Amino acid sequence: MSTSVIEPGTRLAGRYRLEERISDSGGSSLWKAIDEILARAVAVRTFDPEFPRIAEAVTSARSASRLNDPRLTQVFDADDSGESAYIVSEWVAGEPLEGMLAKAPLEPGRAATLLYEASEAISAAHAAGLSHLCLTPRDLVWTTGGTVKILGVATDAVLCDRESDDAAAEDVRGLGRMLYAALTAHWPGDEEGSALPAAPASDGVPHAPRQVQAGISHAIDAIVCRCLGIGSGEPLASPADLAKALRGVPRTPLPLFAGLGNAPPANPRQTPPRRPAPPPQAATQQQHRRPAPEPAAASHVPPPRTRAQQHAAPPPPPSTSTRTTPAHSHGGPKRPANRALIGVAAAALTVIVGLGAWALSGPGGDDKPKGGGATDNAQTSAPPKPTVAKLTPQGIFQAERPAGPGHGDGTIGKNLPSVIDGRPSGDWETQSYYDADFGRLSKGLGVLLDMGKPVKVANVKIYAPVSGGVLQVRVGDSKSPTDLKRVGEQTPNGGEVTVAANPQVSGRYVLVWFTKLPGGPFKGRLGEVAVYGAAG
């Protein structure tokens, strides 16, 4: 069965039902499909029988399936023994870096954090003997679950027929180009790698990021230049070296959802001709776009405006004290009769207001304030804002939601009291699991704080000495996790994160648990949990 006759509804291996063709190029097609056995969305790549590297692609996918870093797309299945070869991998929903940058550059601290996560993920792949070789802004996705995902490790190189004698250096250049793009919203690589505007260059060498976009520090500018061979700095040799370098620059925690905050655009005087950029593809699989589409003709679209420009406030209305001229007037002085009429109207209005006040305060006005004094509404103070203070838990318990009957782990963590002892050095941790989903044994695990009585929770500050995964906060009056109200989620960043309750929520119990585990190894850790709010 060739790719050309595979249609929506086709089942592969008796379980993968193809639903929507996402892309079709280079002898292979990418589909959104449903794994009918596990009832989940997956990405399926099928191949035309004429594709010359089917066996190599399947072999590379099987190698990638052994990777356990949650920031790398997981490969579930790969087979070329039947009539149709296929590769089944995780369906990634979110916004690709290219989509974010179609609006404006990222704030430098967030760009550094995003590429730090990507560098660590590619470093994990290199440690397992695999590489990417084709990194572009389309391969980095900020998922709807608030995590970084790198698409196409090992398999994209085969699909693109790409090889390298120094895979580490090639992937450092790819990561450096992505960081350059994140900082400037310009692409310093080959035209087919991205639809972003081309980076300005001299003699084929891109200008340094600080020459293109204001507000970039010398430190992060130097890192990009070392990745791309700009200037005389010592080149970075591997993704691990890049991750180490990015650890030394200021980084901003990433938000939970796709659509990162953007910095102002580049100086219009330095903006080169722009290639049309596609609209952001939020909540869409953005995998494997090989080969690249035909290059579009260059256009002179002006640079994206800043948020302030796009939503500029209208001019203020004229002051009430300013004399205005009616549309039919020629600016001459008003006649005295007009002034007399205005005086009569003002006197009439005064009489009406006086009669109304007498009616409200006269006979029958039983609502008059005691003491006979009139109430001055202008001096009535607004209700005071509730005071937010750190609340003291009265107890702490382990919390788990097993995946089903017979699942779960009765000893999910240890060192519980250290989570509420007031020090971030606590060492509550779970056991290690096979994957970020707790080896399919649980759907969440963490700690449940008993506040002793119902309280109003404003925010919860969590110190977690891990990066990646998802931490969720719930509040309510039940010890059962599923009966508590979900307040919010955050991705741990190796330090303190805050989950705010807006509006405040009330309850006796506060649950802080991992719904996705950080990788390397897959283990949850908590140092301190602090609840802020007021007595209920």
Automatic annotation (TrEMBL):
Residues 320-330 have a biased composition (Low complexity). GO terms for molecular function: ATP binding; protein kinase activity. InterPro entries: Galactose-bd-like_sf, Kinase-like_dom_sf, Prot_kinase_dom. Residues 265-281 have a biased composition (Pro residues). Gene3D superfamilies: Galactose-binding domain-like, Phosphorylase Kinase, domain 1, Transferase(Phosphotransferase) domain 1. SMART domains: S_TKc. Keywords: Receptor. Residues 16-302 form the Protein kinase domain. Residues 256-337, 364-389 are annotated as: Disordered. This is Protein kinase domain-containing protein.
